[in-house]
Records
---
Amino acid sequence: MSITPGMNPQVNSVSNRLSLRPPQRDSLEILARLAEILPLEKDQDSADCLARVRAEFPYVESFERDFPSLCFALATGVGKTRLMGAFIAYLYRAEGFRHFFVLAPNLTIYNKLIADFTPNTPKYVFRGIAEFTTTPPEIITGENYEGGRGVRSDPEAVQVASTAAPGGWALRSPEGTRQARLFSQLIDAPIHVNIFNIAKINSEVRGGKAPRIKRLSEYIGQSYFEYLSRLDDLVLLMDESHRYRASAGVRAINELKPVLGLELTATPFVETSRGPVAFQNVIYDYPLGKAMADGFVKEPAVVTRKDFNPSGMSPDEIEQMKLEDGIRLHQTVKVELETYARQTDSRIVKPFVLVIARDTTHAAQLLALIKSDVFFAGRYREKVIQVDSSMTGAKEDEMIQRLLDVESPDEPTEIVIHVNMLKEGWDVTNLYTIVPLRAANARTLIEQSIGRGLRLPYGKRTGVSAVDRLNIVAHDRFQEIVEEANRPGSAIRVQQLVLTGDQLVQQTVTVVAQSQLAAALGVQPPQQTSSTLVAPSTAPPAFATPEEQKAASLAYEAIRKLESRPDVASSVSRLQDKQVQADLVKQVTEQYRPFQPDLPGIMPEVDIAAIVAKTAAMVVQQTIDIPRILVVPAGEIRCGYKPFSLELGSLNYQPPSEELWVQHLRTNIREVIALGKGNDIEARPEDYVVAGLIDFDDVSYDDHADFLYDLAGQVVEHLRSYLSADDAKKVLRCYQKQISQFVHAQMQEHYWEEATGYEAKVSRGFTELKASAYTASANEPIRDFMEPVPDKGNIGKYIFGGFQRCLYPVQKFQSDTERKLAVIVDRDSLKWFRPAKGQFQIFYLFDGNHQEYQPDFVAEDTSAIYMIEPKAANAMDDPEVIAKRNAAVEWCAHATHYAESIGGRPWKYLLVPHDAVNTNMTLEGLASAYQVKPASCAVRPRHANGGC
């Protein structure tokens, strides 16, 4: 069958509102198709329903239950709970379903699901669905169902004289199922989401009695279970559905008689004594290896010491080394996470270490060791918890609460010791280091351990290895794990991280370098942690008393607000205009409150006008005017692609062998993975390429159909030049995404866009200098930038200071060329700095993606402001260097035009080869030799801020 993405408006709406990832959207599209081909009524003919499903999804062999039930197998970390919310939202909006039963396999997942389905919680699954904002879902749980909560608010139930209980509740089941369901939307009736632990319906209690949910309720007139089983629109959602395959669980679920079952799991098989038995009702499979390749989860890496040799070491000594190295690695990761957060203005993530113990006795011994003074001088005494079955009563409550709060930066836990309690449902994003101390084979170690730590804290990969990596410290198991991960058919591939002894013992910190202006005004960086080191400033405090500092802080805040008012403050020099200062004085006066207002005459009065004037003067002196510029088309816009021939020489995919198909999938439903998006079988081989290309946001099928099929035809012709027609189709099915990306990247080089004209809009006349953040050794002193380092290849690890005209107290350099350029600009300019990420908001197009350009240097002298980029002499013609250059040159042209309109200095872009940078050169000499001047462009590529 073929699912056409983007054709169902309800799928589009739910996907967009919930920001679904591609595999989640694929699953939702399949559900939409199921709603079309299945009757979704009570007491359906299961054989007929299965035949309908198999006609379009032939790999589904059985429902495995007494009702239509289909499994969506999504890897851990991709977002199964969010997908459940999308399923419910779609079925309500498109089909009128109002009754849902969400089943949890244990108490941990049960509590998590209740939290995630509750409005105003951090991971609320319906955030963005407008209907549920005005009429939130009614959440019925194992704790509140007995009072008839769901039944009493149900418009499909009416109070009648019942033979079971006079005055009780009975269900009204109107005919015309779908029309009746949609009627409830018209009367704005809430949907009912029942969330239950399987134990509530699966087990008998003492004396052989039925579970409480199956007993007669005086409020309902029947058991709540019977009420649910009679609903004509009950949809069952099973989280971690591999846990409901036991006979008792199957019987209990079948008795609910839902019209549809939607199962979600990351492991679509059941372990038996004869090995894993695959599910027969998997309709969509998105395995862990695919999630890793697509960047939806962390990359696992196995860690060892360089030249590690266990001979002569006892098991206890190896264990202690692994534990200590894990903590040392954790300290490094903690700093890298903070540095990244400060560089990108993101929240700081507090990582933690998971230590896997052999048993509860071993866990207690590890806890005692970590709490002792000999373990890292007792620094982790209050930062460790033990999580296992040995905890009871108040200790268990405290343990569970700390475990639930482990993601919070305010919760101190950084080490979690566990034996076997942390399985499905423990949903955290800040696990970064695992130290397995329990004997297990490599496969079990990989599959059971890494699943808990694969979720990404920012929801996507960052491109920073330390932020995107999950570390498994396994000195003694290193080679075994690597071989297991690399075996044919393995679900994952692991990176290898070999650390030297020096790297493990080196303590690092995040150095925050604020501007000299911020330091002089007493501004403190936010979210300071134990790993934060604020670089010492050479600027003395501008104001002496707390009262003056408070007024100056208010003045600075008011000035920062003027950044977005270019009509009032077109540049920093305008801060000294009388009217601007008068407005600033008024704002500060209205907000200022003395520390001791009830003691007149004791505290000296603050001259707010003088403080405002001094603060404004400091901003003028210690800031370079950096406008925020957005280049937008004016008039009619036309765009398209120039016809071209693809370069296909490197495209040499081979069809997978039958054996590799089986090993790769781990089950007998090989078509699920082998096929491309949606597991489709396209009518023509060209359709695979076209279907993949139209998934890109910048490709319109309606506008480019002929062009797309021309490119697809080139790909098919190339594949058939060395493959049979059948093998070429296999390659297209298996590698659809990779081939589409390959073609799309070449398309970008032939894109054109033209407009009647372009205009630059200035949203800010100037911008505050952003703080920089670096990772550095805690014991490494700040070096004098005038002195070269002996190991120039490692210059990136040093922090330099001693500047006279730099707007920051310290800077880092990535090459000695940059250090020498700093010597030149510190001598020849009025002021200079190295911009932090996000300071300029200049973007360039490369390899089909818009990326931010971060200039290396900005310097100002009496005649101009220079954006300077030193580059290796042999890289001056590199395509990416040229793309950056073009974007920067155009930005400088627009900035110059704006500066000239307000009497400011022009901007000039210098691209300087490294061998031209020597300390005997002058800034003026470099500018005259290496300025890149703007050139006009008739047809422009897509750049967020231009670029010819």
---
Amino acid sequence: MNLIRSSLKYKQVSLIIILMVFVIGIYSLMTMPRRSSPEITVRQALIVAFYPGATASQVQEQVTKNIEEKLFTYKEVDKSETYSTTTDGLLTITVSLEDWVELPDLFWERLGQGLFQLKETSLPQGVIGPIVDSDFGDVVSQLIALETKEHSYSELKDYVEIIENNLRQLKEVSKISHLGYQAEEIHVLFDSEKLARYDVSLLQIIEALKTQNSIKYAGYLDTEQMRVKIHASGLYSQLESVKNQMVGTSPEGAVIRIKDIAKVKRKLQDISQLIRINGNESKVMLISLQMQSGYNIVEFGTKVNQILEDSKQQIPDEVNMVIINDQPAVVKSAVNDFMREFIIAVVAVIIVIMLLLPFRVALIAAFSIPVSIGMTFTFLNLFGYELQQVSLASLIVVLGMVVDNAVVVIDNYIDKLDSGMKRFDAAWKSATEFSISLFSSTLSIIVAFLPLVFMLSGATGQFLITLPVTVAISMSCSLVVAFFMTPFLAYVFIRKGLKKDDAKAKKKFNVLDAIQYIFNRAIDRAMNHKAITVILGVLLVVGGALMFSIPKQQFFPDAQRNQFIIQVFEPMGTRYHVTKSDVQKIEDILVKDSNITAFASFIGTSAPRVYYSFAPVFPQESYAQILVNTSSTEITEELAPYYLEKLQHFLPNAHVDVMQFAQGVPTVSPVEVRVYGNNIDRLNNIGDTIKEIFRKTEGSRLIRQDFDENFILELNIDEEVSNRLGFTTSTIAEMLGAGLHGAPVSRLWEGDDPLNIVFKLEKEKRDDYSDVLNTYISNPFFPKFIPIRQFADATPRWQVGKITRRNGIPALTTGCKPENGYLASEVLQEAKPAIDKLTLPPGYRLEYGGDYKNQGETFGHMIAALIISLVSIFIILLVQFRDVARPLIIMVSIPLTLFGAILGLIITGNVFSFTAFVGLIALVGIVIRNALIIVDFSDSLVKKENISFAEAARESAKRRLRPIFLTTMAAAIGVVPMIVLKDPLWAPLASVFAFGIVISMILTLMVIPALYAIIIRKRNTIGD
């Protein structure tokens, strides 16, 4: 039974099914989830451990190595991408998981249990943690800032909670958190000399505060009829309660209260982090909002905005609400831009078809485009894929391909009408006759892309997976339309062939006729000089390979967003107020720029992950970040380079970096050199050499290393004297830490707000090196107060304060970024020869990170995918022809794409990027189809018309020119909007595709027939 003939005979069934799928597709297009970029599973988390009082070296030896040893026992951990940063008293490990881990959250839970067991058995006392922060990778959809000058942080927190409670009503909400809250504290500020005079020890005061301000079980009283519980009152309820707390008596019997020996103040906690909005001196809190997966983020944003508007009625007018990061608006704009490009592409392809074909023929061919694309949306939505830039770009690339099958069927239908066949027979036979070749060529296109699903992994694989899936679905839908709808439309609307008998019709100018005339003369000459034609094709392939080094290389371009980032790196150990002062100088500049709509400054910390490739920085007082919103993506592309030029040398003691969000895998520096070894000093020496090479490299900037030194005051304790006085190193450190840093000893509750009671030295007693030695301490065994200087001295010195390790080995990374107008690949290309000449000591090795490493890994996987595609396509052709010669001839068309592809990048000025490589893969399927049509039709002519193979090849090229030319130009025109609009991510792909497909079409139509005529000489080589 012939399905195509049956579908034409019982047309209502096939037409209704196709129409239903199409209508569902239109509905899916309107309702399916939307995102700016594909959802990426961030397989990273932070492990944080505190070891107060320990140097970086002590933390590394006693904590870091133990945790790493435990960590690397898990097979899920990607050891090569897991690295630790050890500083004084602090360890942070960025843990990366293998790409095959599908449920990271389950592993993080198991890891947390394993680290808890490790702490109990192997880590030293005093270690706080380790804690697994698995929220590190979560991308926020919106950052909502509340700022006020009139209200306190406590009041501001109440208003934030009102909004959070309202937002929780939305089922689409995933996580809500807030940041920026500055808690109030009660500071008990003492003078150790004064305590000595009153003969009151620190331990007495701390004990008094703890025991008085605690809840203990007081039992109950049983009566005859009921049990009465007893509750002891006396908890601190106000500041005066703390001031009046008795801590001892004088020799004369007078009561000594805290207010007699210390100052008690209510104030904000010592600030090490702060969030500011638009440079205002106001109190700010942020609400971080995340959306559940699978919802339409644009609709989600609309609902959130409505709730925010309603919430304004519940908070005072003096509290200003600012949306700092609005992902729904970004997605709406991005999807609208892509939809505009998509519609332009569809219209352009239809116009090309209308211009080159008779109206009715063109109408039927054009009709296949919206139907195929509409059906594609049905299955994308059914399989759970979202509408985002990759899926829409895939549809733009595939536009010319989906019309191809329909054009071939219509062209064959008209040929049969011209030969005198009846319309019904011509309709079903036009599709049936080419069913095998259309199926094979369509399958070849799908197979060209499909290996990307399996070979690309991690963030890059997740980013691109929609492309091969979309191509597979749309091409399958186009085949269904060509087989089961196009024959019916041709049968209904085209009742006679296109042969013209009258002289007037012959004189009418037709573009395709002109092209056909020129091509016929060209193919005749090419076939008369077959060897020269093939040699010219080989020379062009070689030329394309030689031209490959001309385009610049860039792994992933910057993302198109109306935001950019300014980072401030102060020297290690810089205090918060110094960082804040420098940030304010930058804010004073930004606030005057009318192109900047808003900005948020994160001092001592960084913004949450507002973009999938943006990695937050662990809080440190010497770091700051400004998230800048602009009026448009075009303005961002102007402002980011401008402020980089203006600010990178603006601060005398700090580095300033200005960067746009980037697509792809996040990197600290695009250019990185890592040196592995065990000796820190040797690593530093090698790193200094690499740093000097980067300094001499044109186009490099912001040269930084992840090892660092800091300035410390080393307390040298005479153990014999201190021990005789009853002081151990531990007690000295604890009491000194309590005085200098402050120790929270109790809490005062105001409703549900806790206020820590913090005990510390008065500020003027902890500002100088000498204050450390002048601090008086005591212990229960020695009642006299002793100044520390009696058994210790202090030595200021520099030390290694920051150590990084990768894969459990100390690894020094020296990185830099490119100046405006340079690419990371250009900087590395110039510096690499000098770095490669370095002689490393035995046991030390060097590797390149950054874009170089990511690009090498991804391109390696893509080359493997391309090889699998080629092998798969060859097998498909082998099965179809049952002959080795013909598949090899068809495969020759693939290298013919190289010259045009590289020429396209050179002419348009685009870089060879990740997506440009995808463009090369897309070309493979197209040129295979063109070559397959020529070879298959040549065989058909040999059988039907009993002509020679050489003549059949010549005639095949001439007769198949029209459908090949039409579909090629349609595919090329479809991606032109990407080139014209200079989309940084997709313009390289479009340039490779558009130029490659047109030039390879010409070469294929010339070289393949000549090669066919040379190789295929005997009739018995045709597989039947």
